[in-house]
Amino acid sequence: MVFVGTSGVLGRYVPVEAPVAIWWRACLGLVFLLAFCWYKGYGFGLRDRRQRAAVLLSGVLMAVHWISYFYALKLGGVAIGMLAIFTYPAMTTLLEPLLLKRPFQLHHLLLAGLVLGGIYLLAPGFDLANQATLGLLCGLGSALVYSLRNIVVKTQIASMQGSVLMCYQAGLTVVLVAPVWYFFEAVPPAEAWPYLLGLGLFTTAIGHTLFLACFRFFSVSTTSLLSCIQPIYGILLGVVFFREVPGWSAVLGGALILSAVAVEAVMAMRGRGVGA
């Protein structure tokens, strides 16, 4: 979550258009991931048509999620973009039982409500007449797509190595977003490279690979709720690098989110028989 949480600051301040940033993020992430998979000797074989279809669908969803999330960051800023995307755990607690035909978990619904309360307190005030509204809508759309992607990963391809799956998803994103070379100036300026390298290595190659590995051990709802600590990291990174100090409402909202994360972590460990 520390590594994935870098996406807000890096994505907001990278000085290129959002689709261009996504193409380079995916391309650089793919290079790092391929090198790691080669070093570890991982295979890329897919067992059947169903798994191939799931990998393809997850790659398309990931590309849409990344682009819409970066537009949310560009239009609404780091706070609105990150907070909007983190409605996805609440969406997951509703979608997972509906799509997978499983019973609703009451504690997941209650914790999702606690997370939403924290996000509400974290969110800065904004005028619905300005572009922050569009940024919020992009963030909510990105959250929905991300939730669907995680469910696809959990049900069909959670047994794959996380780095191998991220190779496929990054590669598909490179192909799907390749038209940026026709519609935009796709060669980044020199000042953009530190941001793009950070997105490719820390956020994508390391962060998302570790995140995918979590699906082997926890449900999608549990993993999603645990990931709600990311806005806290995003805010802390903003304080360290850009001196964006949050107000008391943000501190209280963060406390609510951390409380939900702590409760879910304890319940998950007890469910797996992990001792104190």
TrEMBL record:
InterPro entries assigned to the protein according to its UniProt record, in alphabetical order: EamA_dom, EmrE-like
Domain of life: Bacteria
Organism of origin: Neolewinella lacunae
One cellular component (GO) term of this entry: membrane
Residue ranges of every copy of the EamA domain listed in the record: 1-122, 134-262
UniProt keyword list: Membrane, Transmembrane, Transmembrane helix
Lineage: Bacteria, Pseudomonadati, Bacteroidota, Saprospiria, Saprospirales
Transmembrane segments: 22-41, 53-72, 78-99, 106-126, 132-152, 164-184, 196-218, 225-242, 248-269
Pfam families xref list: EamA
Keyword NAD: no
Protein name: DMT family transporter
Glycosyltransferase found in the keyword field: no
